[in-house]
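Annotators were shown the component list below and the corresponding predicted structure, then asked to write short factual statements about the assembly.
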Amino acid sequence: DIQMTQSPSSLSASVGDRVTITCRASQYIFNYLNWYQRKPGTAPKVLISTASTLQSGVPSRFSGSGSGTDFTLTIDGLQPEDFATYYCQQSHSMPWTFGQGTKVEIK
Amino acid sequence: EVHLVQSGAEVKKAGESLKISCQDSGHTRIDYWIVWVRQVPGEGLEWMGSIYPGDSHTKYNPSFEGRVTISADKSINPAYLQWTSLKPSDTAIYYCARVGGLTPYFWLDPWGQGTLVTVSS
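Structure shown to annotators:
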């Protein structure tokens, strides 16, 4: 199985901050990488697909980059509604696997 | 528009059986792949398996194969996740989600609201 390792596991940030979350795959996965946001008590929501494609309706302050084994999710100008847990997921090969999550908390 | 609605929370005892469902309230038929994802409290997300309700073609994560059964009833559209003998370690939130995208790129969107399954010993 492809292991997905996110860092950090949690972070504290203030409204307006730039936040960067990294995801590393244990094998080369090209750009088969998606990012999800999950707020407490709600289902995950896809933010970015194929490493860098912003899903419809997702604010432009979210961006994704990377290819191969190293990927990044950036939130440029953190907003109150962005405090949540973020997960990466590879769809390169089955079983599809997720990172362990990064919890973004209010400082 | 796809809108996945899952069955309600369940409280069970170890050894009991259970079947939970996932229905697309926006369509009469499901003509896309659906996945089941587990989230154990305090842990991450795990892909359990996928099903195409049109022909019930199923793929399992080896970690879950033999422990759960994923099925579908294309005539009334739900997808199902079932256990024949629950264990306390099955306590988790179970999500269904649609597989979106185009070959070879896939992602999960939208997701159902989740079904909390609690299994006591």
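Statements collected:
1. The interface with chain B takes residues 32, 34, 36, 42-46, 49-50, 55, 87, 89, 91, 94-101 of chain A (CB under 8 Å).
2. Chain A has a mean pLDDT of 96.
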